[in-house]
Amino acid sequence: MAIEKQPVDPNLPVYTLGIASQLSDIPAHSIRQYIDKGLLIPYKLDSSRHLFSANDIQRLRHIHMLIQEKGLNFAGIKALMAMIPCWEIRPCGKSDRENCNAYASDSIPCWEASEKGRKCKNENCRDCDVYKVLSEGSDFKEVIRGLCG
User: What is the CATH number of the domain that holds 92?
Assistant: First the structure.
Protein backbone atom coordinates (compact mmCIF):
# COMPACT_ATOMS: atom_id res chain seq x y z
CA MET A 1 0.00 0.00 0.00
CA ALA A 2 1.44 3.37 -1.06
CA ILE A 3 1.34 6.25 1.37
CA GLU A 4 0.05 9.44 -0.15
CA LYS A 5 2.06 12.53 0.69
CA GLN A 6 -0.07 15.46 1.70
CA PRO A 7 1.15 18.93 0.79
CA VAL A 8 2.39 20.78 3.84
CA ASP A 9 0.90 24.21 4.50
CA PRO A 10 3.82 26.67 4.11
CA ASN A 11 2.32 28.81 6.90
CA LEU A 12 2.20 25.94 9.39
CA PRO A 13 4.65 26.66 12.23
CA VAL A 14 6.65 23.47 12.72
CA TYR A 15 10.32 24.46 13.07
CA THR A 16 12.03 25.36 16.34
CA LEU A 17 14.45 28.29 16.49
CA GLY A 18 17.43 25.95 16.13
CA ILE A 19 16.00 24.24 13.05
CA ALA A 20 14.93 27.59 11.54
CA SER A 21 18.49 28.79 12.08
CA GLN A 22 19.90 25.74 10.28
CA LEU A 23 17.40 25.91 7.40
CA SER A 24 17.91 29.62 6.82
CA ASP A 25 21.66 29.57 7.55
CA ILE A 26 21.12 32.53 9.90
CA PRO A 27 22.43 32.50 13.48
CA ALA A 28 19.74 32.10 16.16
CA HIS A 29 20.78 35.37 17.85
CA SER A 30 20.16 37.22 14.56
CA ILE A 31 16.71 35.65 14.26
CA ARG A 32 15.95 36.79 17.82
CA GLN A 33 16.99 40.33 16.81
CA TYR A 34 14.66 40.24 13.79
CA ILE A 35 11.83 39.23 16.12
CA ASP A 36 12.69 41.93 18.67
CA LYS A 37 12.79 44.59 15.95
CA GLY A 38 9.37 43.60 14.58
CA LEU A 39 10.61 42.24 11.26
CA LEU A 40 9.32 38.74 11.96
CA ILE A 41 6.31 37.46 13.90
CA PRO A 42 6.90 33.83 14.85
CA TYR A 43 4.22 31.59 16.28
CA LYS A 44 4.49 31.53 20.07
CA LEU A 45 3.67 28.45 22.13
CA ASP A 46 2.16 28.70 25.62
CA SER A 47 5.65 27.85 26.89
CA SER A 48 6.92 31.06 25.16
CA ARG A 49 8.98 29.01 22.68
CA HIS A 50 8.83 30.18 19.09
CA LEU A 51 7.93 28.04 16.10
CA PHE A 52 8.54 28.97 12.48
CA SER A 53 6.90 28.01 9.20
CA ALA A 54 8.44 27.45 5.76
CA ASN A 55 7.24 30.96 4.84
CA ASP A 56 8.97 32.33 7.95
CA ILE A 57 12.19 30.73 6.69
CA GLN A 58 11.71 32.51 3.34
CA ARG A 59 11.11 35.80 5.15
CA LEU A 60 14.24 35.27 7.27
CA ARG A 61 16.32 34.72 4.16
CA HIS A 62 14.87 37.84 2.54
CA ILE A 63 15.58 39.99 5.61
CA HIS A 64 19.10 38.58 5.86
CA MET A 65 19.73 39.29 2.18
CA LEU A 66 18.60 42.92 2.64
CA ILE A 67 21.10 43.28 5.47
CA GLN A 68 24.04 41.38 3.97
CA GLU A 69 23.75 42.20 0.26
CA LYS A 70 21.88 45.50 0.18
CA GLY A 71 23.44 47.01 3.30
CA LEU A 72 20.16 47.94 4.96
CA ASN A 73 19.81 48.22 8.71
CA PHE A 74 16.73 47.29 10.75
CA ALA A 75 15.23 50.78 10.46
CA GLY A 76 15.68 50.69 6.69
CA ILE A 77 13.99 47.32 6.40
CA LYS A 78 11.11 48.48 8.61
CA ALA A 79 10.72 51.59 6.46
CA LEU A 80 10.56 49.40 3.35
CA MET A 81 7.96 47.18 5.00
CA ALA A 82 5.99 50.29 5.99
CA MET A 83 5.74 51.20 2.30
CA ILE A 84 3.61 48.15 1.59
CA PRO A 85 0.17 49.65 0.98
CA CYS A 86 -1.80 47.47 3.37
CA TRP A 87 -4.98 49.35 2.51
CA GLU A 88 -4.67 47.99 -1.05
CA ILE A 89 -4.09 44.40 0.03
CA ARG A 90 -6.88 44.50 2.63
CA PRO A 91 -9.14 47.22 1.24
CA CYS A 92 -10.44 49.55 3.91
CA GLY A 93 -12.45 52.72 3.87
CA LYS A 94 -11.23 56.27 4.25
CA SER A 95 -12.34 56.52 7.89
CA ASP A 96 -10.40 53.34 8.75
CA ARG A 97 -7.28 54.73 7.08
CA GLU A 98 -7.60 58.02 8.99
CA ASN A 99 -7.65 56.09 12.28
CA CYS A 100 -4.72 53.85 11.39
CA ASN A 101 -1.10 54.63 12.29
CA ALA A 102 0.13 52.34 9.52
CA TYR A 103 -1.51 54.52 6.88
CA ALA A 104 0.11 57.68 8.22
CA SER A 105 3.54 56.31 9.12
CA ASP A 106 6.44 55.75 6.78
CA SER A 107 8.52 53.96 9.38
CA ILE A 108 6.35 51.26 10.95
CA PRO A 109 4.78 48.32 9.13
CA CYS A 110 1.07 47.83 9.71
CA TRP A 111 1.56 44.89 12.08
CA GLU A 112 3.42 47.23 14.45
CA ALA A 113 0.85 50.05 14.36
CA SER A 114 -0.52 50.89 17.79
CA GLU A 115 -3.80 52.23 16.35
CA LYS A 116 -5.47 50.28 13.58
CA GLY A 117 -8.65 50.57 11.59
CA ARG A 118 -11.72 48.48 12.43
CA LYS A 119 -10.86 45.82 9.87
CA CYS A 120 -7.47 45.05 11.41
CA LYS A 121 -8.00 45.86 15.08
CA ASN A 122 -8.65 42.29 16.26
CA GLU A 123 -6.70 40.43 13.59
CA ASN A 124 -3.73 38.18 14.27
CA CYS A 125 -1.11 39.96 12.17
CA ARG A 126 0.82 36.74 11.59
CA ASP A 127 -2.17 35.42 9.62
CA CYS A 128 -2.76 38.64 7.67
CA ASP A 129 -2.16 38.76 3.90
CA VAL A 130 -0.16 41.98 4.32
CA TYR A 131 2.34 40.31 6.64
CA LYS A 132 2.46 37.10 4.60
CA VAL A 133 3.03 38.84 1.27
CA LEU A 134 6.78 39.06 1.92
CA SER A 135 7.02 35.55 3.27
CA GLU A 136 5.97 33.84 0.11
CA GLY A 137 9.13 34.33 -1.91
CA SER A 138 8.33 37.76 -3.31
CA ASP A 139 10.33 40.90 -2.77
CA PHE A 140 9.25 44.49 -2.16
CA LYS A 141 9.35 45.52 -5.81
CA GLU A 142 7.23 42.55 -6.88
CA VAL A 143 4.67 43.38 -4.21
CA ILE A 144 4.44 47.05 -5.17
CA ARG A 145 4.49 46.28 -8.90
CA GLY A 146 1.67 43.76 -8.44
CA LEU A 147 -0.47 46.31 -6.61
CA CYS A 148 0.17 49.09 -9.11
CA GLY A 149 0.00 47.03 -12.29
Answer: 1.10.1660.10
Top-confidence residue, 35 or 126: 35
pLDDT tens string 13-35: 999 999 999 999 999 999 999 99
The sign of the torsion formed by the CA atoms of 115, 60, 87, 45 equals negative
- Domain with 144 in it: 17-148
Domain assignment present for 3: no
Q: Where are the beta strands (DSSP E) in 3-123?
A: 43-44, 50-51
Helix-helix angle 54-68:28-36, to 10 degrees: 90
Which amino acid does the sequence have at 147? L
Count of domains in the chain? 1
Residue 48, sorted as left (phi over 0), alpha (psi -120 to 50) or beta, turns out to be: left
Q: What is the CA radius of gyration of the chain?
A: 16
Is this structure's pTM higher than 0.85?
no
How many C-alpha atoms does 73 have within 13 Å on its Cβ side?
Answer: 2
Among 127, 130, 89, 93, which residue's Cα sits nearest to residue 109? Answer: 130
Bridge-partner residues for 50, per DSSP? 44
CB of 55 within 8 A of CB of 14?
Answer: no
